[in-house]
């Protein structure tokens, strides 16, 4: 069985920053649906063409497309030792899609990144100055926050009911946050 660990939190909470470090240290696959979609956009695939405008507006790419992309990715060899899901699931249907494959890929823990909104806006606008990410704009950030509270935040309850949630204070020193996460891995 290949256990999945989910990194869940608002846009700019540092899920990607921490997922990269943890995956490297513990030899797990790092699956960022945001990075995968951005690769599709750069490679001008059919999926990339659909995703581009949706992502620029700060909205979510449709569940069907993202779930199919994720399930295909889990079939890769590097996921056999387990994977960190960075930015998936973001909706209840996406979470339920993981329930359907739980015999092979059980979710063992869900790390919920907590950061206040003011800090998040500052981080994303700062990233926007260097990343070239076309969704790091004030307009898009507003939509992304709304969607997070409407579609993604309810997942915290969903996983709380399964007793899988680990809350992480994701403000402060990146290495300190990393250690608080890493102590839950073995
Ligand atoms: P993502 O790529 O997941 O983008 P994100 O939520 O903004 O990033 P993250 O929280 O990983 O922040 P990061 O580590 O970079 O999604 C982008 C878009 O893709 C979505 O809006 C959606 O359209 C689409 N998408 C993705 N997954 C989807 C899904 N499952 N379903 C449908 N659509 C989907 O950190 C942010 C910044 O903060 C960085 O600049 C970092 O350097 C900085 N930072 C990190 N930790 C810090 C700290 N402790 N202190 C100060 N700064 C810090």
SSE layout and pairings?
Elements: E1 4-8, H1 15-26, E2 29-32, H2 33-42, H3 46-56, H4 63-74, E3 83-86, H5 92-100, E4 107-114, H6 117-131, H7 138-152, H8 154-160, E5 165-169, H9 174-182
Parallel strand pairs: 1-3, 1-4, 2-3, 4-5
This protein binds BIS(adenosine)-5'-tetraphosphate.
The portion of residues forming beta strands comes to: 5-15%
CATH architecture: 3-Layer(aba) Sandwich
**What are the distinct ligands in this entry?**
BIS(adenosine)-5'-tetraphosphate
Looking at CATH, the homologous superfamily is P-loop containing nucleotide triphosphate hydrolases
Kindly give the count of domains. Answer: 1
Helix content: 40-55%
The total of helices stands at 9
Whole-Å distance between the termini? Answer: 16 Å
Structural class: alpha/beta
Can you walk me through this structure?
The chain has 186 residues and is of the alpha/beta class. It has a single domain, classed as Rossmann fold (3-Layer(aba) Sandwich), CATH 3.40.50.300. 54% of the residues lie in helices and 14% in strands. The protein has 9 helices and 5 strands. The protein has helices spanning 15-26, 33-42, 46-56, 63-74, 92-100, 117-131, 138-152, 154-160, 174-182; strands at 4-8, 29-32, 83-86, 107-114, 165-169. The protein has a 5-stranded parallel beta sheet with strand order 2-3-1-4-5, with helices on both faces. It starts with a strand and ends with a helix. The mean pLDDT is 96. BIS(adenosine)-5'-tetraphosphate (B4P) binds at residues 11-17, 32-34, 37, 54-55, 58, 60-61, 66, 87-88, 90, 94, 123, 127, 135, 144, 172, 174, 177. BIS(adenosine)-5'-tetraphosphate binds at residues 11-17, 32-34, 37, 54-55, 58, 60-61, 66, 87-88, 90, 94, 123, 127, 135, 144, 172, 174, 177.
């Amino acid at each position: 069985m290949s256990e999945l660990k989910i990194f869940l939190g608002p846009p700019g909470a540092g899920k990607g920053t921490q997922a990269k470090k943890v995956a490297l240290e513990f030899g797990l696959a790092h699956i960022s649906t945001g990075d995968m979609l951005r690769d599709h956009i750069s490679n001008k695939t059919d999926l990339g063409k659909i995703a581009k405008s949706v992502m620029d507006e700060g909205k979510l790419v449709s569940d069907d497309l993202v779930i199919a992309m994720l399930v295909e990715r889990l079939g890769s060899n590097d996921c056999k030792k387990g994977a960190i899901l960075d930015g998936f699931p973001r909706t209840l249907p996406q979470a339920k899609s993981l329930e359907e494959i739980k015999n092979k890929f059980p979710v063992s823990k869900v790390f919920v990144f907590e950061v206040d909104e003011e800090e998040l806006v500052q981080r994303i606008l700062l990233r926007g100055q260097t990343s070239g990410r076309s969704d790091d704009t004030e307009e898009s950030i507003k939509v992304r926050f709304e969607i997070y509270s409407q579609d993604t935040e309810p997942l915290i309850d969903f996983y709380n009911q399964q007793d899988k949630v680990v809350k992480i204070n994701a403000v402060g020193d990146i290495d300190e946050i990393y250690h608080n996460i890493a102590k839950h891995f073995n």
